[in-house]
Design a protein that fits this description.
globular, 0% strand
């Protein structure tokens, strides 16, 4: 496993990419070597989340000049360039980058980034191929040694739950959503745990278990009264 010298997660707030951009720019003022390279990839991601794709691409191209082929920063670079391409409307261009990130990350023992890459391939593919990549990531998360890599299990279960939902495999979807919510609670991820309950309520409605679904949504409406998705579900439940 490759030890990162900086905890980049502490600089991130995915609900505030502009604020994250500011923190990464400040970090990059003094960062050197590998820290600078990875910081550049994360700055590009913050820009991409603001739909500033041209600037994000320029940052990544600047970093690419310094990246050693086959190195851990290359894995992260491949992921972020892939995300930039996908978000700007080119999933077909992003797919080989995510696949390369997966293969290289796995060969280097980078659990967190390898699972992230599997998850991203699943996003840019469809049907059985997407499911297979989610399942591949889930297997890696369940066997991971790194805590943050293990926490990918909840996300991948949630993705597979929606795949089941789309195929009208409602009981299978419910089981995955319940397990994902339990994991979010275990991780102390309150916001995501609330989303997990919403997913459970949604599939319960589809199963015709209206009273149970309504109970969940009523409780959520007290916790997050301005959430439009909760309000839409309450309206649908009548």
């Amino acid at each position: 496993m490759y030890p990162l010298r900086v905890d980049y997660a502490e600089l991130w707030d995915f609900n505030d990419p502009a604020g994250s951009e500011v923190r990464f720019r400040e970090f990059l003022r003094t960062a050197r070597g590998t820290d600078w390279l990875i910081g550049m990839t994360q700055l590009a991601r913050a820009l991409g989340l603001q739909k500033l794709f041209e600037e994000a691409s320029e940052i990544l191209e600047k970093a690419a000049i310094e990246i050693e082929p086959g190195s851990p920063p290359q894995v992260i670079w491949l992921l972020e360039m892939g995300r930039c391409l996908n978000s700007s409307g080119s999933p077909e261009g992003a797919k080989p980058l995510f696949e390369n990130a997966f293969a290289l990350g796995k060969s280097l023992g980078l659990e967190l980034w390898t699972i992230d890459a599997a998850h991203m391939v699943a996003i840019v593919t469809k049907g059985d191929e997407s499911r297979a990549w989610n399942e591949r990531g889930l297997e890696l998360a369940r066997g991971a040694k790194e805590k943050r890599a293990q926490q990918w299990e909840a996300t991948l279960l949630n993705n597979l739950g929606w795949a089941d939902f789309g195929e009208s495999k409602l009981e299978e979807a419910l089981a995955k959503f319940v397990k994902a919510r339990e994991l979010r609670e275990e991780y102390g991820q309150k916001d995501r745990e609330q989303i997990g309950r919403w997913c459970i309520g949604r599939v319960l409605r589809e199963l015709g278990r209206i009273d149970e679904a309504r109970e969940i949504m009523v409780q959520l409406s007290k916790e997050v009264p301005d959430d439009q998705y909760v309000q839409e579900e309450l309206a649908a439940l009548g």
